[in-house]
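Practice problem 4.
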């Protein structure tokens, strides 16, 4: 097997500002090498056995020297692995992507580059600043602010040219040299009152924009404690922000919303909150516990030859089943005669990672849809194996039993995750949590049990949103004040309860 490297631009931070091609590279990777500016949530899209290597740099303190990063990438590819190198923004905009490509070429390693949305353009956009505009700037210049100490004798940057182009100037990595940058531009003739924007954590929920002028910007930045990553934008396009700022005007911009995750995943809630500009903080209150020494599962695996279908309804179910096969010194060939069904695309990806393409994948990820897809093809002769969670819904098994023989084997159960206490308390202590959502009675109970009653005062300034009357009652019984209840028990209505204050 031949390895390959994808140098992928991960965009400026907003989760959805990633290319489809970039997402494919993340999903296919055996190894992902990523740094500080790439949104870590992308790692959730990777295969379950994908290796993650953090090579982050926090401005001046390099965690890993570039040579070492090059080495890791090249070595992993030589082992025959698919390596995805995730870089913030675009890999070729001050990302040293060119250097990594050169090393790969020299070592005869196959590589591809996937461009990304650079912060130098996309970051400005989310601050309401168009990098060009017919009335303001007909060119733009993206400049490194990471100046070498000896720039007097050996000027890397032609300040005179920059000061006089009239185009928008964007400095990356420039916070530490802001004084030098502004002084040089003024010295070479750029008007002192030229507007400057400092955009920190652009496109993220914690985006912060400070407006100043060229002569005052350094002082302002010190006063406001501006830190990297920050974009420095110089030019009159900055004034358009008042009109074009859409991102910070989103209904949930700047709001931290804690989501206590239940058995039914909360991903659509997370996505809606992000679309509205909010910052979802997911708190898993439940963990998966595998049933150990699962003799029942071993028994059915030994009798796989009698089965015609295997139904896998979660990533956990896939992992446990295939790990057991491996433990019994079997592999995917044991399923050669069996049709394998996944509950949704994500489960199908996990199955594929184990060497099998799922035969049945419903469009929507619910038991009802899987049942609809299956009932067309099943006959009374079929025999179905469903290894799954102990506390799973009955629907699928019951309905399928109306058609043929179904064997359900419990392989794991979800239990309250008390180990999350410190993590949750740390978030409640460190951040302003504006809202906490509870989508079921059990999530309220678990949440209170995890943090402990004595810590309930830590959420007294957060507004609690409940999905309905039953959940609200449970909350009140546990001394949790409910600020608002969703009109109906849906994710949409939870979001509405937050947005429509
Ligand atoms: N390849 C990246 C740039 C890497 S250099 C790109 O195309 O965006 C790192 C610098 O980029 C940071 O110091 C900062 O100036 C800028 N930067 C990257 N992402 C940013 C973000 N989300 N907000 C503000 N600045 C960002």
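Answer key:
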């Amino acid at each position: 097997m031949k390895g390959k490297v994808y140098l992928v631009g991960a965009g400026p931070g907003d989760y959805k500002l990633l290319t489809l091609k970039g997402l494919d590279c993340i999903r296919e990777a055996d190894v992902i090498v990523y740094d500080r500016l790439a949104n870590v949530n992308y790692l959730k899209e990777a295969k379950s056995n994908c290796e993650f290597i953090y090579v982050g740099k926090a401005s001046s303190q390099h965690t890993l020297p570039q040579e070492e990063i090059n080495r890791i990438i090249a070595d992993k590819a030589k082992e025959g692995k698919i390596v995805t190198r995730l870089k913030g923004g675009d890999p070729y905009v001050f990302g040293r992507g060119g250097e990594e490509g050169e090393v790969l070429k020299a070592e005869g390693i196959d590589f591809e580059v996937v461009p990304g949305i650079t912060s130098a353009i996309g970051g400005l956009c989310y601050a309401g600043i168009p990098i060009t505009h017919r009335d303001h700037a007909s060119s733009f210049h993206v400049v490194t602010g990471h100046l070498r100490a000896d720039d007097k004798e050996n000027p890397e940057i032609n300040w005179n040219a920059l000061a006089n182009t009239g185009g928008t100037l964007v400095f990356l990595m420039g916070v530490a040299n802001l004084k030098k940058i502004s002084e040089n531009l003024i010295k070479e003739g750029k008007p002192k009152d030229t507007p400057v924007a400092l955009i920190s954590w652009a496109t993220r929920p914690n985006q912060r924009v400070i407006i100043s002028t060229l002569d005052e910007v350094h002082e302002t930045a010190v006063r406001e404690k501006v830190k990297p990553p920050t974009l420095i934008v110089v030019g009159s396009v900055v004034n358009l922000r008042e009109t074009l700022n859409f991102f910070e005007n989103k209904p949930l911009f700047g709001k931290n919303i804690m989501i206590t995750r239940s058995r039914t995943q909360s991903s659509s809630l997370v996505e809606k909150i992000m679309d509205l500009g909010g910052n979802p903080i997911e708190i898993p209150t439940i963990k998966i516990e595998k049933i150990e020494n699962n003799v029942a599962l071993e028994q059915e695996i030994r009798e796989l030859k009698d089965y015609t279908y295997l139904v896998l309804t979660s990533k956990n179910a896939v992992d446990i089943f295939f790990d057991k096969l491996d433990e019994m010194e079997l592999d995917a060939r044991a399923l050669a005669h069996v049709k394998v069904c996944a509950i949704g695309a994500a489960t199908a990806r996990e199955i594929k990672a184990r060497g099998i393409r799922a035969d049945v994948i419903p469009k929507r990820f619910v038991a009802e849809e899987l049942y609809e897809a299956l009932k067309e093809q099943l006959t009374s002769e079929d025999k179905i194996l469903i290894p799954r969670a102990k506390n799973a819904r009955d629907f699928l098994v019951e309905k399928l039993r109306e058609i043929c023989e179904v064997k359900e084997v419990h392989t794991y159960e979800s239990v309250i995750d008390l180990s999350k206490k410190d993590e949750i308390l740390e978030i409640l202590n460190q951040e302003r949590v504006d809202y906490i959502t509870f989508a079921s009675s059990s999530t309220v109970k678990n949440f209170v049990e995890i943090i402990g009653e004595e810590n309930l005062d830590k959420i007294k300034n957060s507004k609690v949103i409940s999905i309905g009357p039953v959940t609200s009652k449970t909350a009140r019984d546990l001394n949790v004040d409910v600020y608002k209840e969703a009109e109906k028990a849906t994710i949409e209505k939870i979001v509405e309860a937050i947005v429509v204050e």
